[in-house]
Amino acid sequence: MNTSISGFSKLSKSQKIDWIVETHFSNQEEAKATLKQYWNSDNKLQQLHDEFIENTITNYYLPFGVAPNFLINGKMLTIPMAIEESSVVAAASKAAKFWLKRGGFKTEVLSTTKIGQVHFMFYGKTETLQAFFQSVKSKLQTDAKPITENMEKRGGGILDIELRNKTEDLAGYYQLHATFDTLDAMGANFINSCLEQFSSTFKREALLFDGFTAVEKQIEIVMSILSNYVPNCIVRAEVSCPVSELSDDKTIDPDAFAEKFIQAVKIAEIEPYRAVTHNKGIMNGIDAVVLATGNDFRAVEAGVHAYASRDGQYRSLTHAKIENGIFTFWMEIPLALGTVGGLTGLHPLVKFAMRLLHNPSAKELMEIVAVAGLAQNFAALRSLTTTGIQEGHMKMHLMNILNQFDASAEEKVQIIHHFKTHIVTHRAVVEAIENLRK
Ligand code: HMG
């Protein structure tokens, strides 16, 4: 059967659905009903969602939860989280509650510089290119003025433009490496517009530069694009307390726990297989807040993981130490976030999330997101080094298993009661349902 189609994008939403179900589904009515049950009855809201992306046929829901009790630099916050995985919100909440009684989280934005590059090929003399770059550098900035004017009024804009010689890695390859401060905007559109302007000025001026030969004048721009690697847009989040206060559970000795916790972090610092899972746990918290606040989690993920391998080996993003009886646990990560532009002014739940966070600046959002990541890692490591992860995770996952088996409200009450005193495993839950239904 031919399942290719030309002109799909031009079809109406219902024509697209018709084509999809006719081409790919034997039970067409059921497939259509599955899609339609997620449509919003408010047509305006549905249209807004339809227009976020292309070829939209329905909405894909993610749960939107909240983790209360976060004390960050002395300010109380309830953090919104959009995520599908059970136990993440509970873990963040538990860590927030734990650190609330121990002074809370301390954060600091260490830098906010973002990067964009014009990648181009030039096969002439490097010295002549450098002379041309020096002659054209201020023109690059002046030509971009219509784009940068408003950002400059607010205190941001282009910080610098450098010529970088990359010919040792690739013959003829150079870059205009530009740095920006985009304040409360994530800045992707601003940076890309500046870069495209730089490339057209650079190409145009090269044709007029007397120092170039006819061949050298033909600079070949390959592409102009921001970098999602932002090692100079860094936020630090930290918690600390006396080791003696590190346990709120009589069964956990604080000294032994602190030692084991630090060993767990050290293992993730030196062992990439562990580091990836360790950092995945951090991203549980980070992505959930990034998504809830309408930011680009793919950009954050790519940048964070590149940072985790900046010395050539993939390592833990968090660190821990004991000094003079004080346990300190911290993380420094790159985060390029925005609180204006993009989805932030459009998506009703993103607006809600921003209000819940007291309309943070981009810097404040960097701090909140980093805290969610640190809290998540603390909760996961606490479980991993004490009870093991499955106990708490499966306790939270219980409802998913019950839903898989279409448990009724009454069955849920009885089974949840049963598992207050029994360990949750998939098999144990299935057995409990079967016993109840006998
Ligand atoms: P617990 O001690 O059984 O919870 O922990 P509790 O019932 O005693 O409640 C204590 C507090 O936890 C609550 O306080 C809440 O803050 C929170 P309260 O609200 O009662 O004042 N809490 C909840 N919040 C909302 N809904 C709930 C809920 N239950 C507790 N239903 C818990 C249970 C799951 C929190 C704990 O075992 C835990 O933190 N586990 C870690 C879970 C985790 O990390 N999950 C992420 C998924 S696993 C993964 O992907 C990452 C990993 O591989 C990363 C790595 O390897 O590093 C692990």
UniProtKB/TrEMBL annotation:
Keywords from UniProt, A to Z, are: NAD, Oxidoreductase
Origin species:
Bizionia argentinensis JUB59
The molecular function GO annotations come to: hydroxymethylglutaryl-CoA reductase (NADH) activity; hydroxymethylglutaryl-CoA reductase (NADPH) activity
One short Pfam name that applies is: HMG-CoA_red
Q: In which pathway does it act?
A: Metabolic intermediate metabolism; (R)-mevalonate degradation; (S)-3-hydroxy-3-methylglutaryl-CoA from (R)-mevalonate: step 1/1
Give the reaction(s) catalysed. Answer: (R)-mevalonate + 2 NAD(+) + CoA = (3S)-3-hydroxy-3-methylglutaryl-CoA + 2 NADH + 2 H(+)
Q: What is this protein called?
A: 3-hydroxy-3-methylglutaryl coenzyme A reductase
Instruction: Indicate the family of this protein.
Output: Belongs to the HMG-CoA reductase family.
Q: From its record, what is one biological process in GO terms?
A: coenzyme A metabolic process
EC numbers: 1.1.1.88
**Which NCBIfam families does the record match to this protein?**
HMG_CoA_R_NAD
Gene3D superfamilies (UniProt xref): 3-hydroxy-3-methylglutaryl-coenzyme A Reductase, Chain A, domain 2 (3.90.770.10)
